[in-house]
Amino acid sequence: MRQPDIEIYLRDASQDAVTEWLNQAVGSCSAWQAKGKTFKCRAGDIPVTWLPKAVGKWHSLLLESDATPWEDDVACARDAYQAIGVEIRCAPGGWQEEETVEDADRWISVSERGEAEILWRTD
Fold first, then answer.
1. What are 40's strand-pairing partners?
2. Which of 33, 42, 43, 87 could form a disulfide with 26 if both were Cys (CB 3.0 to 4.6 A apart)?
3. What was the pLDDT predicted at 121?
């Protein structure tokens, strides 16, 4: 089932590299607009939010639509890794309010080491 939005975390990725990837994968990006600590743009018709250093060295990228080229966060993470070449982390599936703390710490890492489920405590 297609997720309602896509969120991935990129380690040390430049905003320019992300913009170039979005241009290719989703559609032409508008200029980034600063909104406090976040940046917003549109990639094609999709609203995008970029939060630099959301978790340490990890930047958050949120595509606020179910009309992305990817079925879920993991498919997007794989594509982003192939295009940008930095480690990408994402939730293994859609997030549910009733998840346990342990489930919330389960993430998928996509990197030069391959794809693996990891524990990542983000708090």
1. 33, 49
2. 43
3. 80
